[in-house]
Each structure stands twice: as structure tokens, then as C-alpha cells.
## 1
Amino acid sequence: MRKLTTLPSNVQQYLLITGNYWAFTLTDGALRMLVILYFHGLGYKPLDIALLFVFYEAFGVITNLIGGWLGAHIGLNRIMNAGLFLQIIALSMLLIPETQLTVLWVMAAQALSGIAKDLNKMSAKSAIRLLVSADAQDTLFRWVAVLTGSKNTLKGAGFFLGGALLTALGFHAAIVGLAFALFLVWIISLVFLKKELGKSKAKPKFTDILSKSNAINTLSATRMFLFGSRDIWFVVALPVYLSSTFNWDHWHIGGYLAAWVIGYGIVQSCAPYIIGKTTSNVPDGKDAFIWALALCAVPACIALVLKYNWQIENALLIGLLVYGIFFAINSSLHSYLIVSYADEDNVSLDVGFYYMANAMGRLIGTTLSGWLFQTYGLAVCLWTSAGFVLLATLLSLGLPKHSATQTI
């Protein structure tokens, strides 16, 4: 603790924001897996399970737009703490008797959780931009990569935790434990997070929530299709497929998806070293295009394996690992580019707009995941995923090709 107090203020705040983000993500991943596995066990169909998360993603779209504007006015610290508090309420809503856990009630709880998640994420990503000087783009890339990658590693741990808690304690006891742990983190964050972090000097108008930057608009559209491509087959279709086709139990599904997301997060954290951008030679639009193109082929190859019925289980699991590596690098690149493109005085507005597109992609992907899988099967989910990545690849051609250290 004494060593922490001797660190520079910006490093202390970075560690606090990262720890806050970690704790939130752990509970959010656990909650998602709890809901998917619990309601699948009750006999809900894939589309019904997908609908449980529609409000989670839909409200994320609105939250990112409005949250960025609010962050500029009242400060990112208050936005982050509000996200933690709303997640505690969302968890508490699921503590009613099982007979009253209707689809509409769970959708409402997930809507609140979606608002909480995007308030927390938007404020965390925006705050990093303010803690690093504009001429230290390589440091910014590394800090963003660590924040993003470690978050997803914890999300994977949350998947495993959710499956384990459901098996060991049951649904309600698991929810109580998660809510109590997050309450402790909220108290710490209220006390120690810097009070004026992220307030804009010139208060933006509400109409300023829409980005006026071509680079940010293009990157946001790319992000929408990128994350839509993942969730089309990963969110609902894959867990249900593993359960119904291979008879995997909760432990196996939660454990495998946890391992996948943990590995995905590790790759994100290492992205600056994997693509060789660890000095002032930071990524640009060309890197985004190359890595999106590489990702495009993976879901198509997995779909072909399913079509020809060749070692389906092994091919699916190996293909998912390859997909995770390429997707993680793409995601890390995008997370750096938006923070780099964002205007310093209105960083929360630009980052909020970008993550609005991210939430829109997740909403589209989650909805299609349940409907396409239930109607056509996993192969069609994968072909649609490949199509979305192709669109993201083409959009990447419009991103600036010069170094992100230059004025954009």
C-alpha cells in the first residue's frame, strides 16, 4: 500500500480505474453466464434467451450517446460510480422468487445492467485518454491494450465463475455474492476516484453527441460490424450448441468460454507486441484493414467444416481459438484508434459515440444469434458472421492511413 501512495497521481488513478473496471466486468460476465445457463436449464429456446439480452444491448446504445455528454458535464468519476451502483440494483432485481422471474422482469434487469456496463466502460476508456499526454501515443496504445485485454480476461473468469456458482450455490445465492462484492468496490471507488476527472472545460451542447469526425464515424461503423460478427454466433448460438449437440454441462460450457475469453484478453493486452507497434510507430487504418481481412476467413472456414461434417467438435473448438486471436487484435487496434482520434476536451463524447456503435453491433448480433440459430442452425450464424467481418474490412479502407500521432 505504501508503494502505491508513492506512485504518480495519473498512475494511481489508472490503477484505480482498471481495478474498478475489472470488478465490474467479473460480475457482468458471471451474470451473463448465470442467466444463459439458468434459463436454458428451465427449457427456454435460443431466441427466448437472446431476447433476455435485447434490452441489455439496446439500452447500451442510448447510454453511450447520453453517457458521453453527461461525462463531459458532471465528470467521468460520477459516471463510473453510477455504473457500479446500477449494476448492484440490477443484480438485486433477480433476487425475487423463481416463480416471479418472468422474461419481462429479467429483460428489465438486463436493461439496467446494460446501462451500468456502458457507463462503466465508456468512463474507463475515456479516462485513460486524459491520463496520458498527447505526445505519448505508444504509452497510450499499451495502456489501452492492458485495460481492454485485462477486462476481457476478467470477463472470461466471470463466465467460469457464473457457471461454477450456479452449479455449487444455485442462482439466488450466486447473485447475492456478486452484489455484495460489487458493493464493496463501489464504496472504494466513491472514496478514492478523482472528483473532477473528465469534466469538459467548454460544456458541450446535447446536439454534440453525434460525431462530426469522418475518422470516428468510419471507425464506429467498422466497430459495429466487427462486434456484430462475434455476437451472431458467440453469445447464444455457441453455448446452446455445445449443450444440445455435444451434451456439455454447465461446468464445461462455462469453463471453455471462460478460457476462450481469458485467452482473448491476454492477446488483446499483448497486441502492441504481436503487431510490432511498441514505439512511436503506432497503428493506423492500414493495420485495421489487414487484421480485419485476416479475421474474415475464420468463421467461413468453420462453417465449411460444419457443412461437410468433418471432426465438428474439434474443428469448432480449434477454429474458435483462431478466431479469438484475430478478433482480439482487431478489437485492441480499434480501442486504441478511438482513444487516439478523440478530441481531448470532449473525449467522453467521441468515445461514447463510438461505443454506441459497438453496442448497436452487439444488439444486432445478439438478436440474430438467437433467431438464426433457432431457424437455420450454427452454420448460417457463421456465414453471416463472415459477411459482417467482410463489411468491417471494406469500411477499414476509409480509415486514415497515416500515423495516429498526426492530427486527424
## 2
Amino acid sequence: MLSTIAIVLIILWLLGFVSSYTIGGFIHILLVVAVIMILIRLIQGRSL
């Protein structure tokens, strides 16, 4: 579940990064949340 959310957030960040309709820093906050969730999964010893 968390990995799915992280992947969706990364995709949304990439779309926001490429498009000219970014919502300021919000899309970068989503990226940070996605990376943190992936790191937590790796630290807990679970695979992505």
C-alpha cells in the first residue's frame, strides 16, 4: 500500500516537474513524502 502511494506521488511529481502548471512547492513536498516512505520501507527490511 505504501509503496503504491509512493510510486503515485513520484509520478505526480514528475508530471508536475515537466508541465508548466506546477503548484509551487506542493509537488516537491509530495516528492519528499514519497522518498521518506520508500526509506522507511527499506529500513524496516521490506522490499519495494
